[in-house]
Task: structure prediction
Amino acid sequence: MDPSPPADVRLLATHLRPERRVLGALTALLVVAMVLPLAGPVLVGRFVDAALAGEDTAALLRLAALFLAATLTGDALQLVVTWLSVRLAWRVGNNLRRDLCRHALAMDLHWHGDHSPGQLIERIDGDIDAVTRFSSTAVLQLLGNTILVAGVLVVSAVIDWRASVLIGLTVAAAVAVMVRLRRLAVPFYDDEREVQAQLYGDVEERLGGLEDLRANGAGRWAEHRLQQHSAGWWRTARRAAARGDGAISLAGAVFGVGSVLVLALGVWANQQGTLSVGSVLTLLRFSQLVSDPLWKVAEQLAEAQKAIAGTRRAARLLASRPALVDGVGPPLPAGALEVELREVTFGYGTGHPVLDHVDLVVPAGTTLGVVGRTGSGKTTVGRLIARLWDTEEGAVLVGGVDVRALSQADLRHRIGVVTQDVELLRAPLRDNLTLFGSVAADDARLTAALRDVGLGRWLDSLPNGLDEPLDGDAELSAGEGQLLAFARVLLADPAVVILDEASSRLDPATEAQLARATDRLLAGRTALVIAHRLATLDRVDRIAVLDHGRLVEHGERAELAADPTSRYAQLLAGSRATEGVAR
Result:
């Protein structure tokens, strides 16, 4: 049996270790804050005994003042401890979110294909929110109340050891009930969080395809899916709550029986002359005092179960490993880089190759147009060069080095990719260009990049210039969005540029503007231009034609276009005929 602690315990320990000084100070304050309430019942008992004995008013006032001071000081310290524990819990929770987010971003595309965005949001935010909400009160409710219960047992033993035994047995029975039911309930809370993740993932997918759902009259189907997921959530939540709430009910019964037994013992001892009335009241108050912390723990039981389940899932997420193993070097040389595909076969793990033994060389500083019918493997070529996937057979080389041997950070820094679907962020224009500082650039350089790609007039029209907030792609046309993506790549100054259908959605006027920006972007760089519209390839040096995953033709663009028997010339003729019919 593995003696090491569970993964979720190790995960929390790792993130709490840097906070050990804060935890030490918090524990010291907590001990004082929880010992002070023990003075309250003792002072009440002495006050009652003093009053029955006929002591003077001054003595009673002193006891009352001490009771008030102990109570107020204890409450104030508990407030400070709560404040500190909340700050600590949120700090640790945010660090967990950061690590989970970084880990998810480092995972490969195959892994992301198995995990919907809704599921990842639930893992990174929902689960950690449950951990944070529980942890913000756990220090006070668990550790603090453990100190309080131990103090009650010690002080009650001084008054009457039999009462201390009864209180101890009551606490032990209540804890046993709650621990037992917690173990039974945790898997059900785990199931509830999984159902929630499925619900959020499905809602995210339905919202992403809202236009298609409306256009095709599938709204009722989407509503039915939501009802199915909601019903599943309700069923799993009901099963979890039945077991979690059962702990509270049974613990309440145990406390009730314990208080009755302590009171009965006290009354009997008073009649025997071994306990005063004040001592009986003190013991009764102690029996109730230990129920208060355990009641608070019981009330937090559901949150504790959700937190445990959330921590386990976070540990599982961090334990997953990407299929792409990062290389260690060597660094790529400066300037344009040669790109080579050497006997590359790849099929996304399906067993059906999308690329089949492809050999292709793009010399440094040249531009290659990649063409072929839909499904021929054009986009896959770009993905393998950028190392979004690894080849199943063969190798992809950039600058003469296998991309699997390179640092992914170095490779991504030297390769720029622009697709037809540009991701614009709800953030200022400056952050959209630099991706929140990932690219270091001053205002002059940002402005120059926008003007170089033809967005100078658009920039001048913005009231706040580079600080203008963008609402995603709602405020930009498709052409402006593509040009903004070109400006991003221009700022990054890559050695290799991959344009994947970058002009497929543009009108002719905007396409002409984009062509000028393309010339500026590709100057002095190695480039792959993947296109359906062959008219966009007039400026490339060479052409590679793919058909069902095989490279069937590769040569100079002008020579292939002039040869009527070439595959490229035939595709070009078909494309022109199609455009003529469309006009």
The chain has two domains: 7-319, 339-582. The CA atoms of residues 353 and 395 lie 15 Å apart.
